[in-house]
Design brief:
Layout (H helix, E strand, L loop, with lengths): L8 H5 L2 E3 L2 E3 L5 H9 L1 H7 L3 E5 L5 E4 L1 H7 L7 H6 L9 H8 L3 E8 L5 E12 L5 E10 L1 H44 L2 H29 L7 E3 L1 H10 L2 H6 L2 E7 L6 E3 L1 H20 L7 E9 L4 E8 L6 H5 L16 H12 L3 E7 L3 E9 L7
Parallel strand pairs: 9-11
Antiparallel strand pairs: 1-2, 3-4, 3-7, 5-6, 6-7, 8-10, 11-12, 12-14, 13-14
C-alpha cells in the first residue's frame, strides 16, 4: 500500500485558508490583509452605494458607503430610503431586472440623509436561486452629481458662445451705425444728427456693458459677500441709474420703499445686479408694448411677513402668457425671442438662489408683469 502523504507544518504555512478562499503564498501583504477583512468588509469599502432588495423592493442589506449617506435602511422600501417617497419610481431598474432577469441601468435623482439632492447612475443585476429564478436584485448606485455639474457647465459654455455671439454682433453693428451717423453729423455740422447718432452709440454701450456684467456673473462660481445694508438704499441707488433711460422711453419710473425695513445681510453687488436686470426686463416689456404711449415701472422694497421682506419690480408692458412664464428661468430662454439671450433673468434666478430666497412672477398678456423676490430678514452673515 502506498504511503499517505501528510501536509506538514511548512506546507500548511504556504496556503492560508479563509473559508473556501485560499491566498497564494506570493500574495502581496496589502492584498492578504484585505482578504483577511472578509468579503462583507470589502463590500463596505466599495466607493458606490450597494443594496440588496427583494421583490417588494424591501432592502435586505446595504454597505457602509450607503449607510454613511442614507442612514440605516434595512427593512425599508428602496423608494423610502432613496427618495423619501411612497411608491416605486416610474422607470425602476430593479423592477425591470425582476421582470426579465437582465441587467438594467438608469439615472435617478435621490435625497441624501442631510436633505441634499444627488444624481445617480443605477445598475441593477439579478441574484438567481438554484432554479434560475430571481431571488433578489443587487443595486449599485454611483453619485454622478459632480459629473452632471461639469457637463452642465460645458453645455452652458457652448450655449454662451453660440447664443451670445449673435447678440454681440448685433450690438457691434449698432455701434458702427451710431458712429456712422455721428460722423455724418460732424461732416455736415448737423448737431441734431450728431445727437441722434450719439444716442444710438450710448444705447449700445449700455447694452454691451450689461451683457458683459451678466456673462461675468453667470460664468463663475461665487458665494455672496454679505454685509449689513438697507434694502431701501439699494432701491434708491439702482433706480437713480435708470431715470434718464426711463425718460427716453416715456416710462414713469417709481421707487416705493418702507423706511422701517431693518438692515439685513445681503451681497449689495449681487442685489444691485438683480434689480438692474429686472428693471431692464421691465423697460423692454414696456418698449415692446405698442398699445400705450406712456408706461409705468415701479420698484419696491417692503415687509412681506414677520420673517421676510421683498423686492418687487412691476411694469404695465406687454406681459406674458402662462407658457412663457413657466420657461422664464430656463437656461437662455428669452421673452424677446431672437432679440435677446435670456441671460439677465438667468442671473436674477442665480442671485436669488444664492441668497436662499424665492422669486414669484405674476403676469397677464397685455397687462404687464410683477417680479417679486422674497428674502429672509435673518440671513446669516456668510451664506
Amino acid at each position: 500500500m502506498g504511503k499517505k502523504k501528510h501536509q506538514n507544518k511548512g506546507e500548511r504555512s504556504n496556503s492560508l485558508e479563509h473559508g473556501s478562499t485560499k491566498v497564494p503564498p506570493d500574495t502581496p501583504r496589502g492584498a492578504r490583509e484585505l482578504t483577511d477583512l472578509g468579503y462583507k468588509a470589502i463590500i463596505d469599502l466599495l466607493p458606490c452605494y450597494l443594496t440588496i432588495q427583494d421583490r417588494s423592493f424591501q432592502i435586505l442589506q446595504t454597505n457602509q458607503t450607503f449607510r454613511n449617506d442614507f442612514g440605516e435602511a434595512a427593512g425599508k422600501k428602496c423608494y423610502e430610503a432613496y427618495k423619501k417617497g411612497s411608491e416605486t419610481c416610474p422607470s425602476c431598474p430593479v423592477a425591470k431586472t425582476f421582470a426579465d432577469k437582465k441587467v438594467h441601468i438608469g439615472e435617478e435623482t435621490v435625497q441624501l440623509a442631510d436633505g441634499a439632492l444627488a444624481q445617480m447612475i443605477v445598475y441593477a443585476a439579478p441574484v438567481l436561486d438554484a432554479f434560475g429564478n430571481v431571488a433578489a436584485v443587487i443595486e449599485l448606485s454611483t453619485n454622478i452629481s459632480k459629473i452632471k455639474e461639469m457637463q452642465k457647465e460645458l453645455t452652458f459654455l457652448g450655449q454662451s458662445i453660440a447664443t451670445l455671439s449673435h447678440d454681440i454682433k448685433n450690438i457691434l453693428e449698432g455701434l458702427q451705425g451710431g458712429a456712422y451717423v455721428v460722423d455724418e453729423g460732424l461732416k455736415d455740422e448737423d448737431k441734431e444728427l450728431v445727437n441722434r447718432g450719439w444716442s444710438i452709440v450710448k444705447k449700445n454701450i449700455a447694452e454691451v456693458s450689461s451683457l458683459v456684467r451678466n456673462i461675468l456673473y453667470s460664468s463663475k462660481k461665487r458665494h455672496p459677500t454679505c454685509e449689513l445694508v438697507a434694502p431701501e438704499a439699494l432701491v434708491r441707488e439702482v433706480v437713480g441709474l435708470f431715470h434718464e433711460k426711463a425718460k427716453s422711453l416715456n416710462i414713469e419710473l417709481k421707487e416705493l420703499y418702507n423706511p422701517r425695513l431693518p438692515l439685513v445681510n445681503l451681497d449689495p453687488v449681487a442685489i444691485r445686479r438683480m434689480l438692474s436686470n429686472l428693471i431692464w426686463n421691465a423697460f423692454e416689456a414696456c418698449e415692446n408694448d405698442r398699445e400705450k404711449a406712456v408706461h409705468t415701472v415701479s420698484v419696491r422694497a417692503d415687509f412681506y411677513d414677520g420673517n421676510h421682506f421683498l423686492f418687487e419690480v412691476e411694469d404695465d408692458g406687454i406681459g406674458m402668457d402662462e407658457s412663457t412664464r413657466e420657461k422664464l428661468f430656463t437656461d437662455f430662454y428669452s421673452t424677446k425671442g431672437t432679440a435677446g439671450t435670456g441671460l439677465g433673468l438667468l442671473v436674477v434666478h442665480k442671485i436669488v438662489t444664492e441668497h436662499g430666497g424665492k422669486i414669484e412672477v405674476f403676469t397677464r398678456p397685455g397687462k404687464g408683469s410683477l417680479f417679486r423676490v422674497l428674502l429672509s430678514m435673518r440671513q446669516p452673515r456668510n451664506l
